[in-house]
Amino acid sequence: MPDVTLTTLQSLKQNGEKIAMLTCYDATYAHAACQAGVDVLLVGDSLGMVLQGHDSTLPVSVEEMAYHTACVKRGNQGALIVTDLPFMAYATTEQALHNSAKLMQAGAHMVKLEGAGWLAEPIHLLAERGVPVCAHLGLTPQAVNILGGYKVQGRQEAQARQMRADAMALEQAGAAMLLLECVPSELAAEITQAVKIPVIGIGAGSATDGQVLVQHDMLGLSLSGRAPKFVRNFMEGQSSIQGAFSAYVQAVKDGSFPAAEHGFSA
Ligand code: KIV
C-alpha cells in the first residue's frame, strides 16, 4: 500500500488541506517528486505528447501506459499512483475491466477515465471489483476532435448545468476522485463544494481540493514553445528540478498556485 491512500485524500479534503498531484512517467522523476512531497503521481496519457511527440494523446496504447506505470512504481516512495486509460481502451465495459486490470497489475492504485455521465456504468463496475476511479471532466483531450480543439468547457449555462449533474452522478456511481480540466473557476468551485470526493483541477481555479500540472509544462519545457495560460514555470528561481518540484508542492499547499491569472472566467 502507498502511504497516500484514498482515505488520506478524503481527510485532506475534509481538513481543507490541498492535494499536490503531478504527472510522472519514469522512476527517477517519481523518486524526485516523492522527495518533494507530491501526494499523487499521474501517469498521464499526456506522455503521448510530451514523451512521444505526437500532436494528441490518441496514439497512446494500454501497453505503453502499463510500461510507464511500472517505471513510476519502481521509483515511487509512498505516493498514490493514478494511471490514464488511453483513447478507446474503455469504449466498452469489457474493455474497461480488462485494461484497468492491466494497469492495476502494472502498479496503478487508481485509473482515470475521460468522459461525462456515460462513465457511470464503467465506474460502477470497476469500483465494485476493487478498482478506484478518477473521472476526468471538462476538457477531455481524448475527445479533442469532437471538441474542436483544446478549449475551455462549461462556459455556457447549459454546459455548466450538465457538468454539475455529471459530477454528482459519477460520485453516486462510485468515482473516488474527480479531475476538472479547463473549467471556469466559479463552476469548478461549485462542483468541489457539491461533491464529497476530492476534486483536482488543472486550469480550474484555486478552489478545487488539489492541483495537477504536466511535469514538462511546470519545468518550462515545451515542444511548441508556448505554455498554456494555467501553467506556472516552477524552474524560475530554482537551480534544480528537485527545487522546482518542491516549489510546486509548497505553492499548491499554501494556496499561492494557481493565482487568479491562471484561471478562466465563465
Ligand atoms: O494526461 C494527463 O497528463 C492528464 C492531465 C492533463 C490532467 O490527464
From TrEMBL:
It is an enzyme of class 2 (transferase). Pathway: Cofactor biosynthesis; (R)-pantothenate biosynthesis; (R)-pantoate from 3-methyl-2-oxobutanoate: step 1/2. The active site is at E181 (proton acceptor). It is found in: Cytoplasm. InterPro entries: Pantoate_hydroxy_MeTrfase, Pyrv/PenolPyrv_kinase-like_dom, Pyrv_kinase-like_dom_sf. Keywords: Cytoplasm, Magnesium, Metal-binding, Methyltransferase, Pantothenate biosynthesis, Transferase. Binds 1 Mg(2+) ion per subunit. Its EC number is 2.1.2.11. GO terms for molecular function: 3-methyl-2-oxobutanoate hydroxymethyltransferase activity; magnesium ion binding; methyltransferase activity. The keyword Magnesium applies. CDD domains: KPHMT-like. 3-methyl-2-oxobutanoate binds at D45, S46, D84, K112. It catalyses: (6R)-5,10-methylene-5,6,7,8-tetrahydrofolate + 3-methyl-2-oxobutanoate + H2O = 2-dehydropantoate + (6S)-5,6,7,8-tetrahydrofolate. One of its GO terms (biological process) is methylation. Belongs to the PanB family. Catalyzes the reversible reaction in which hydroxymethyl group from 5,10-methylenetetrahydrofolate is transferred onto alpha-ketoisovalerate to form ketopantoate. This is 3-methyl-2-oxobutanoate hydroxymethyltransferase. It comes from Ectopseudomonas oleovorans.
